[in-house]
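Support case: cytidine-5'-monophosphate complex. Customer-provided input:
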Amino acid sequence: MTGDRKAVVVAIDGPAASGKGTLSRELAARFNLAHLDTGSLYRAVAAKVLAAGQDPKDPIAAEAAARGLQSSDLQRSDLRTPETAQASSIVAGQAKVRAALLDYQRRFAARAPGGVVGAVLDGRDIGTVVCPDADVKLFVTASKETRALRRHKELVERGDKATYDEVLEAMIARDRRDSERATAPLEQADDAHLLDTSELGIEQAVAQAAAIIQRQAFSEG
Ligand code: C5P
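Agent response - structure generated as follows:
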């Protein structure tokens, strides 16, 4: 790769447990791209607010946590708990929290750290708000039952006792908050490719996404 080539940006959006996280990591490794899981930023803000005994709905507490976010916060052990997941979509509905995290995400996309050729960012608003000029946009989805099964399996493997029905209900509530909020709601960008992973194994999903990226970002002419 030549040094003066513009960084390639791949935007991957979709609802909870759609498979976008695994897909993003695999694609980043395959194309030598850095990867940013932007959901972890909102999760870290939520986890900090909860750990301080504050209310995720409190806009002052949430904005302060977002402005003070450190890279060590992204390594917290409580990022993947169901409580943090719900609270993350509450803090993410607040415009000032989103504004506080925007620059970091855009800089990550532009700078392509560590000798890589660009970046994959995954989240909810990457193709619509964070990187509207991304070279490739994917919108990854799956039926809500498939997504709840995946998330339930993940939680059980970590020793959580949540039932499938509880996971499904929590996921529907979170999807609704993410899709109906006024600022940067979850939605498919007009120019995003739709990838439904309900019937796809991870290898098939990666193969389909990789073909789109190869064609759109790495083919000459
Ligand atoms: O992707 P993940 O499920 O970890 O994201 C946690 C929460 O963070 C989402 O439910 C959503 O509310 C918020 N989020 C967001 N915008 C992003 C990424 C995540 O609002 N780009």
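The chain has a mean pLDDT of 94.

Case will auto-close in a few days if no follow-up is received.
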